[in-house]
Amino acid sequence: MHFCALNCFTLKLDNGRYVITSDNGFITSIWAVESFTRQSVILHRTDSSGFSAVLTGQISKEGNRLINETWDGKASDFKLAWGTALNTVPGSNEERDRGQQPQRQVVVVRPAVVCYPWFLGMICQ
Fold first, then answer.
1. pLDDT, tens only, 42-54
2. Which domain holds residue 65?
3. So what's the pLDDT on residue 76?
4. Is there a contact between 77 and 67 (Cβ–Cβ < 8 Å)?
């Protein structure tokens, strides 16, 4: 699964729970599944730092992402996706940042209009 809020990461299934591991292989977050039905998804997140949270929602009609998300009982805009929707949510901060590169502005420089008198009028180019 891919999760994205302030930070984005990939959750991997390990012994009936989802985990996030650091680059050196240590588990940094454990997500215990209390409920995972279309009507009720309840995940208990516990980080190695001591942070914990309860994330809830419902499974989308497509069955591949969380909708109506709450974080500790409050409406939230975090994203959680799996299966065919996996690539709709970045799996890391690096992936998120690559996808949100600012668009380069294109500046078109046109030469100034030059006018000069010609007989009884003006010619501009």
1. 999 999 989 999 9
2. 2-124
3. 94
4. no
